[in-house]
Specification:
Helix content: 10-25%
Low-confidence stretches: 1-35, 220-229
Strand content: 25-35%
Number of helices: 7
Mean pLDDT: 84
Shape: elongated
Oligomer: single chain
Radius of gyration: 27 Å
Number of strands: 19
Order of helices and strands: HHHHHHHEEEEEEEEEEEEEEEEEEE
């Protein structure tokens, strides 16, 4: 899921207390000399102060276990190495999910998986989301996206560079420029970013140092655009009106929850949701085109339908979203994810919570068998069903076992025109009950 901006800024600020001034790729501010150098091969480098900064934080130990005095500032940074640098900088939590197939055996594999679990990377190709390309060099454009996601840098109000117009990373490049994490690639030509240029280890130190210091300083920016939480982040609320919402990432959930992507960007026109499918290889759980964009769809009055967390086993789960902004080019798509924990007592859940029949007077329909009773812990148990309300038209199976459907039939014979509604309650000893709303709309003869 990517991290919420305010939350992660506070977390970084709390975890890191040392603040140094930064020496830049393109000079942004002068920095004091470091009294004692950790490495011998970065003397005279414009990045030396920043290399010392990340070394002091334990983000790097140099480039050679045989010679710890070497940093290799001119060497390119690989995608695998970048994962480890960011994970160390933010102390990202471990995950039990193996996201990619091409990093097996890499010493950075654990950190690559942590980076993916945090929503900072989705791999190196949309055609094959199981690939990370750990040995590839990190381009400056990719670096911008890594940093933007990892530190939840807000989107920018301006377009700063002229050579990134065809890059899918352009919004993220502008974001890190607006808060002065980058100044571009050329003092002589400040409107150039050089998006395809491979980042060196020296440059990487400066990128990371500025991102950390920006967060520690309270995520302030010199522009007129004030930093906000990531406008695309997944949110969760205990209420169908979505008030008192919080970032979904890191939450512990139980019972019904209202999960959504806010319409903070007016050009969002579609959100696709996947649950526990971090590579988005399967069909989406839901495709939602109504704002706000709700995981379990939006009611006609604009409120959210609840997501029943009993559908998930207790433990860690992840939701991934693909957000389409205003077209079908790569730049129009934004990807986010959130990892959360479910803690429920044993309970029943249904594959559908609402069933409706549209009948004319005298007609009958059913039986429907598309409502299956399940348990949230995967066990099998016997259940009983009873109906309340207007039930004379309704026929249901009154008992069964989990993983089998309820049989539901409706008859408009003798029923008056209009809406008829019944509430079906399914119970099992030791399990939270589940409820199903069944409606029949009878149209009158003419």
């Amino acid at each position: 899921m990517f991290r919420s901006g305010a939350g992660w800024a506070r977390r970084v600020a709390g975890a890191m207390g040392l603040i140094l001034l930064v020496a830049a790729v393109v000079p942004l501010a002068a920095g004091p000399a470091v009294a004692v150098g950790t490495f011998t091969d970065d003397d005279g480098s414009p990045h030396e102060t920043n290399i010392e900064f990340i070394a002091a934080r334990g983000i790097t130990g140099g480039c050679s276990t045989q010679n710890p005095n070497l940093y290799c500032p001119g060497n390119p940074v690989t995608r695998a190495q970048m994962a480890s640098f960011i994970v160390r900088a933010l102390n990202l939590p471990a995950t039990g999910t193996d996201f990619f197939t091409d990093d097996n055996g890499s010493p950075h594999e654990d950190n690559i998986n942590r980076l993916a679990a945090a929503g900072v990377t989705t791999g190196c190709t949309t055609q094959n989301p199981q690939l990370y390309c750990p040995g590839d060099g990190v381009t400056r454009a990719q670096m911008a996206t890594f940093i933007k996601r990892a530190w939840a840098v807000p989107l920018a109000a301006l377009d700063y560079f002229t050579d990134d117009n065809n890059s899918s990373h352009q919004p993220n490049i502008n974001a890190i420029r607006e808060v002065n994490i980058t100044g571009g690639c050329s003092v002589q030509h400040p409107n150039l970013f050089c998006p395809s240029q491979i980042v060196t280890r020296g440059q990487m130190a400066s990128f990371l140092t500025r991102a950390i210091q920006w967060a520690e300083a309270g995520a302030t920016t010199t522009s007129t655009t004030q930093p906000v939480s990531d406008i695309y982040e997944l949110r969760v609320s205990p209420f169908d009106t979505r008030v008192s919402s919080a970032a979904l990432n890191g939450q512990v959930l139980s019972e019904d929850q209202y999960i959504f992507v806010p319409q903070s960007d007016p050009v969002i026109n579609r959100v696709r949701f996947w649950i526990d499918d971090p590579t988005r290889a399967g069909a989406p759980y839901r495709v939602e085109s109504l704002d706000l964009f709700d995981l379990e769809a939006t009611k006609p009055n604009g409120d959210a339908f609840p997501y029943d967390t009993f559908k998930l086993s207790n433990g860690t789960h992840r939701i991934d979203v693909e957000i389409r902004r205003n077209g079908d080019t790569p730049a129009d798509f934004v990807y986010r994810s959130a990892t959360f924990t479910v803690q429920n007592s044993p309970g029943l859940w249904l594959t559908k919570y609402n069933v409706s029949f549209e009948l004319a007077e005298g007609e009958s329909a059913g039986p429907l068998t598309n409502v299956v009773v399940r348990t949230n812990n995967g066990t099998s148990t016997a259940w009983q069903a009873s109906a309340s309300g207007d039930t004379s038209w309704l026929t249901i199976s009154t008992s069964g076992t989990t993983n089998h459907p309820i049989s539901i039939s409706a008859s408009a014979v003798g029923a008056s025109p209009g809406m008829h509604q019944a509430l079906v309650t399914i119970t099992a000893p030791g399990y939270k009950t589940a409820q199903l709303t069944v409606t029949m709309n009878v149209s009158g003869g003419g």
